[in-house]
Amino acid sequence: MNRLQNVFRTGLLPVIAALSLAGCGGGGGGGTPSTSNQLVSQSTTSPALSGGSVSTSPTVSSGGATGSGSAVPASSGGACVPPTYGPTSGSLAIATKTCPAGTQGQAYAGCTVVAQGGVPPYTFSVVNSSSYPTLPEGMSMASCNGQITAPIIGGQGYYEPMIQVTDAAGNTVSSQISFSIAGNNAFLETVFPSNSIFHHRVDALPVDTSPAAPIPSAYASAHIRVFFGDTSGAPFPNGIPVISVPASQADVPVSTTLYQSYFTSGPIPDYAPIEGTATSAGGDRHVVVYRQGSTSQPPSLYEMWQGAFSGSSSTGWTDSSNALWSDTTSNALTPQGNGTADAAGLPVGPLLVTADEVIGNGTPSDPTGVIRHPIRFTLNHMLNYWVWPATQTAGVGSCTNSSGQVISIGQELSQSSPPATCSTSAPAGEIYRLKSSVPNPSCAATSPQAAIILTAMRDYGIILADNGITGGLIGTPDSRWNDADLACLSQLVLADFQPVNVSSLMVSPDSGLTQ
Question: Quick check: 295 and 275 in contact, CB under 8 A?
Fold first, then answer.
């Protein structure tokens, strides 16, 4: 959700960069494929095709007819080599529907898209359309044999890109192929110190009675809407992805085009996942990268809004705004009024709910984890002020002091010395907890993932982080989520939550340190 209120995943933009694989010669009378039928991927180069990278030897049927043939993928020193085709008959078709699952941050086992019928050889490509996602970030597909590989998978969640095959006679066929990628986000639990407000329980704190604090009455009946999951956003991954890179990850240029910029270069790999993938236009396209620490540098968090990879490491990335926490072992907040990659001036990644923290040492069907932070959520409009630990806002309305004077908008409000009146409510950064008087929905008894999130809503609350769809609860995309389980959360309405006064914990408005 952006600072101007985006509708979740509406309108999409063509891929910023169609990145090419080394061309491969045609075989069996096919000639050399057009460069337009090469690679669409987040990778700048094609990974070498080793003899052990793809072990499948698909059978090429003749569109269901009696004739048959075989297409055995070949490899040769990293060059794209077309397979040797046997006789085929029948109409051109794509036999592959699903590729093997994978895990973010690991090498991909590989997948070969199998074409059949028509006139071999075939040229394989990923359709560049706003209606479909890219391949999972990090993956690339060889245009001459349909082999999909990734030295490192950057993406997470469910992807269903449209694959197109063109035969030697110029006939084309397209079909969606699904990929399920498990996230690898446990590192987020250690971002910021344990004494940070971002890791402090709020279940025992007093209610915030400020007129600025409540959920606006117009939103009170709105249900929680779960904007993360497995296939619930199909064909796109549903949620904001996050990736960890090593301390040695090379910096690349970053150019910011609209709002504030904290960095002009950063360790953003070409396989960094993009919210909604690179084809997302109306979405926020958040890019969140955590760089691990070393003996010579602390861990750090880089976040971009509307990030786009240029197609080359030499030119790097562009974004519309970005933010940097250069030492995540510190409690330092971003400067007051300066903004970040969301409207509230908060970090994005550490406030997402992840499958890793919910599952814990258990399994997706029997999770045992604990969430120890407030969870990001959105409203259609927030109040045009913020409260600690937020540092910025992009809202509406105003408040007055005890003398009846309007308090200048776009500044921090004090929970300990609240305004006298407000024309609306819900400032950026306000934490709301699930009321103790509200029982868990009955579905929680059979929805173990949702039950863990409900506990977090009581203990740590939800934090107003951005403009967007009212009641939007934000997490990471992940194949381990159970969408039917998570749907239990939609039984809650915003009237079930109450604002929390955290002012007794604040040491400084510029620090997340609690006392």
Answer: no
Buried b (16+ CB within 10 A) or exposed e, 204-232: ebeebebebbbbbeebeebebbbbbbbbb
- Average of per-residue pLDDT across 306-334: 97
Q: Are 427 and 213 in contact (CB under 8 A)?
A: yes
Burial of 146 (0-12, 13-18, 19+ CB in 10 A): buried
Tell me which DSSP letter residue 489 carries. Answer: G
Q: Tell me what pLDDT residue 52 has.
A: 30
Q: Is the pLDDT of residue 186 over 80?
A: yes
- Confidence class of residue 76 from pLDDT cuts 50, 70 and 90? very low
Contact 505, 189 (CB under 8 A): no
What span, in angstroms and rounded, lies between the C-alpha atoms of 277 and 125? 17
Closest CA to 177 of 156, 165, 160: 160
Predicted local confidence at residue 50, as pLDDT: 30
pTM: 0.86
For residue 82, what pLDDT is reported?
A: 87
Give the pLDDT band of residue 16 (cuts 50, 70, 90).
Answer: very low
How does strand 243-245 pair with strand 287-291? parallel
Indicate the average pLDDT of the chain.
Answer: 87
Distances (CA, A) of 424 to 160, 381, 384, 395: 41, 10, 9, 10
CA-to-CA dists, residue 478 to 184, 218, 237, 358, 383, angstroms: 9, 32, 8, 12, 32
- Contact between 123 and 174 under an 8 Å Cβ cutoff? The reply is no
Cα separation of 163 and 94, whole Å?
Answer: 9
For the chain, percent of residues with pLDDT exceeding 70 = 85
Residue with tokens 């819900």: 426
Residues 303, 96: Cα–Cα separation, whole Å? 36
Angstrom distances, CA of residue 428 to CA of 26, 50, 344: 58, 51, 5
* Count of Cβ atoms closer than 10 Å to residue 497 Cβ: 24
Strands (DSSP E) along 257-365, which ranges?
A: 265-266, 287-291, 300-305, 308-309, 317-319, 321-325
Question: Is residue 4 scored above 70 in pLDDT?
Answer: no
Tell me the mean pLDDT in the region 149-176: 98
Write the CB contacts of 205 (distance below 8 Å, at least 6 apart in sequence).
500, 501, 502, 504, 505
Which element (helix H / strand E) includes 359? helix 355-359
pLDDT tens digits along 347-379: 999 999 999 999 999 999 999 999 999 999 999
- Residue 293: count of CB within 10 angstroms of its CB: 14
User: Six-digit token pair at 432?
Assistant: 């709301």
How many degrees, rounded to 5, is the angle at CA 413 between CA 411 and CA 414? 145
Percentage of the chain lying above the pLDDT 90 cut: 82
Distance CA 74, CA 66 (A): 26
